[in-house]
Amino acid sequence: MQNFAEWIGNKQISEDRCEQRSVQMLQALFNKKDLTVKETPHLFHWMNFPHVVDQSEIATDGHPKKGDFLPPIPFPRRMWAGSRLEFIKPIIVGQYLRRVSEIADIQFKQGKTTDLYFVTVNHAIYANDELVIKEQQDIVYKPDTDTNQKMSVSKTSVASPQLNYSFKQQYTLDTTALFRYSALTFNGHKIHYDRPYATQVEGYPGLVVHGPLLATLLMQTLQDKYPEKVIKKFEFRALKPVFDFNEFYICGDVQEQTAELWIEHIDGQIAMKAKVTFQE
């Protein structure tokens, strides 16, 4: 175990602009390209502030090499495990944006099957110098996969806890959708588009659906079904992967002040959980 405590407090400031064209392209992924919006839909800000580096600075997994803003944790496998967000004001299409990011915590944990590093990053996002979103992001780092122990798709039905469904909508995402989302977010992580890398190097049975894409699907579906509700807070946590060959359900239990949302595999296993708090 290495100590990366000196990286806590490391800051980065990024600037961008909310572009109409980018918003329209992401809307097209959800079959809404002709929907004109003034306010940027929730979670579309994840298209902004891409980490732009030269091709020579790309690591073998497709991510930028570590050691700039993020610490040089030696574990090669990394993924976005979850986030907690507060929406203070809407981002208006065309506004100039600034994000102030700070590493808030770094923890080493011994899991049941492997060692893990967790890095927590705080983001404050400003539009025309007004604070509009506060976000806390969790990044998990894992060691190399044992190539003799490939991940497999569970064929055993696992009983879910008793759930209340306000809605349950079946959904699929193909390889084109994964490519388009990777392109829009400038995400070069090979597990989302390079099948030989995903299966032979990282040991997955297929291409991995982006966690932020699943979270955005949850948000989009909730807002489509309850457009009158104003969302104040949103948090999500990834539990199990969704692959490009999976069919899954977008589910929600909506109450007056809160909503529980989740991605559910066909066999009942929960891939992602989320919680929404509505404005009173």
Descriptive account of the structure:
By secondary structure, this protein is an alpha+beta fold. The protein has one domain: Hotdog Thioesterase (Thiol Ester Dehydrase, Chain A), CATH 3.10.129. Helix content is 15%, strand content 35%. The chain contains four helices and ten strands. The protein has helices at 20-29, 175-185, 195-201, 211-225; strands at residues 11-17, 77-87, 96-110, 115-127, 130-142, 167-172, 231-238, 247-254, 258-265, 270-278. Strands 1-3-4-5-2-7-10-9-8-6 form a ten-stranded antiparallel β-sheet, with helices on one face. Strand 3 and strand 4 form a beta hairpin. Helix 1 packs antiparallel against helix 2. GO terms for molecular function: (3R)-hydroxyacyl-[acyl-carrier-protein] dehydratase activity. Residues 69-133 form the FAS1-like dehydratase domain.
Number of domains: 1
H/I helix tally: 4
Instruction: Please state how the strands of the largest beta sheet are arranged side by side.
Output: 1-3-4-5-2-7-10-9-8-6
* Structural class designation: alpha+beta
Strand/helix succession: EHEEEEEHHHEEEE
Mean pLDDT, to the nearest integer, reads: 91
CATH homologous superfamily, by name? Hotdog Thioesterase
The top-level CATH class is Alpha Beta
Contiguous runs where pLDDT drops below 50 for at least 5 residues:
147-159
Give the topology, please:
Elements: E1 11-17, H1 20-29, E2 77-87, E3 96-110, E4 115-127, E5 130-142, E6 167-172, H2 175-185, H3 195-201, H4 211-225, E7 231-238, E8 247-254, E9 258-265, E10 270-278
Antiparallel strand pairs: 1-3, 2-5, 2-7, 3-4, 4-5, 6-8, 7-10, 8-9, 9-10
